[in-house]
Amino acid sequence: MGEKVDLNSSRQIGEILFDKLKLDPKVRRTAKTKQYSTRAEILQRLEGRHEIVGQILHYRTCAKLMSNYVSELPATIHETTGRIHTQYNQASIVTGRIQSDRPNLQTIPVRTELGRRIRRAFTARDEDHLFLSADYSQIELRIAAELSGDAHMRTTFEEDADIHAATAANIHGVALGEVTEEMRRTAKTVNFGIIYGISPFGLGERLNISRAEAKVLIDQYFAEYPGIESYIEETLTFAREHEYVQTMLGRRRYVRDINARNNTQRQAAERNAINSRIQGTGADMIKLVMRTIHKRLTEGGFKTRMLLQVHDELVFDMPKAEADAVPPFIEAGMRTALPLTVPVKVGIGSGPSWLDAH
DNA sequence: TCTCTCACG
DNA sequence: ACGTACGTGAGAGAC
Fold first, then answer.
1. HEC string of chain A?
2. From residues 118-137 of A, which are strand B contacts by CB within 7 A?
3. Of A28, A56, A139, A267, which residue is 20 to 30 A from A319 by alpha carbon distance?
4. Nearest nucleotide by C1' from A204 CA?
5. A140-280 domain in CATH 1.10.150.20?
C-alpha cells in the first residue's frame, strides 16, 4: 500500500502487479526488453485476482481515447474550412492498401461504447446532408474463397451463410443450429488466423488452448476447406520460385526472405506471402471502385462526395435529396468492382453521423 | 529514438 | 533453442 505509480508507465504497472502483488507466477515478458507484459489481453486473465487490474484496464481505455482522439482531433480542425482533413498515402503500404495520417482517420473508435461516442462526433455538414457508409462484408474471406477456388467456402458464401458460424459447424462437426457463441468465436479466430498464416502455437495462444488442440482445429479446417490448404501451398511454391507474390490484378509484393535459411525470417515471409495476395486484392478492388464512383458522382452532377476510405469501407457526404439515387449505384459499383465468381456483399447505410451510418 | 500499448481494417 | 497471425499510426515512457 501507499505505492506511487505512473499509470501511463507499463513498466511500473508490471512491477506493481508482478513483483509486489505477485499476481501471476507464470508472468510473461515482452520480446525486446524482457519487461513484464501488461497488455490488455494478459491483464484480462488476472482480473479476478485483484481489483486494481480492472481499474488499470479501465484507465488505459480512457487514457487512449483521451490522448489519441478527444485531445488530438479538435486541434486538427482546419481554420478556414472548419473540418478535419486527413492525408492519404498510397505508396507506403506493402500490400497496396492506402494509409491515413495527420490525423489518422482509419482508426476512429467503434468497438466499445465509449469509443462509439467519438465516432458519433463525426457528423454530416448540415441538416440537409447525411453520412453514407458502404462497407464490404467479409471481403478478405470471399477473396480467399475466390483465389483458392475452394468449393465448400464458395458454397457458404453462395448461400449467404454466416461464415464464422458455418465454419464453426464444419470444424466441430455439428449442425448450424447447434453452434454456440463460443464455437463461433473460435471459428472466427481460425478464419482470420488462416488467412494470416497462423501456426498451431499462435492459435493456441489466442484461444488459450494447447498447441495440440489448436493443431486439431487447423487440421479440421483444412479438411473442410481443402482448397485453402492448396492455396497456401501454391502461393508458397510460386513465392519460392519468384521471390514475390501477386494480387489478382498482378501487383507484386516481393518476399525476398521466402528462401531464407533463418527459420524465423523465412516463416515471417511465408505469412506475408499468404496474406498479401488476399489483403492486396481487396485493396486493388476498393481502389478501382473509388475511381469509378468518383467519376460517376462528378459526371452525373451529383453533390455527394467521397470523404473517407477505411480499407473495406467508403464514407460519403450526401445531400438528403440524393438519398434515393446515390446508394444503389455505390452498392452495385462496389459489388461488381472485380469480376469475382464468389458473391460479394456490401452493407450500406446513412444517418446524421458516421456512427449512425453503420 | 526505441519500446510498449492500443485504436482500426 | 527460438519464435510463433497480416497491415497500419500515434501517444507516452524510458533512455
1. CCCCCCCCCHHHHHHHHHHHCCCCCCCCECCCCCCECCCHHHHHCCHHHCHHHHHHHHHHHHHHHHHHHHCCHHHHECCCCCCECCEEECCCCCCCCCEEECCCCCCCCCCCHHHHHHHCCCECCCCCEEEEEEEECCHHHHHHHHHHCCHHHHHHHHCCCCHHHHHHHHHHCCCHHHCCHHHHHHHHHHHHHHHCCCCHHHHHHHHCCCHHHHHHHHHHHHHHCHHHHHHHHHHHHHHHHHCEEECCCCCEEECHHHHCCCHHHHHHHHHHHHHHHHHHHHHHHHHHHHHHHHHHHHHCCCCCEEEEECCCEEEEEEEHHHCCCHHHHHHHHHHCCCCCCCCCCEEEEEECEHHHHC
2. 135
3. A139
4. C4
5. yes
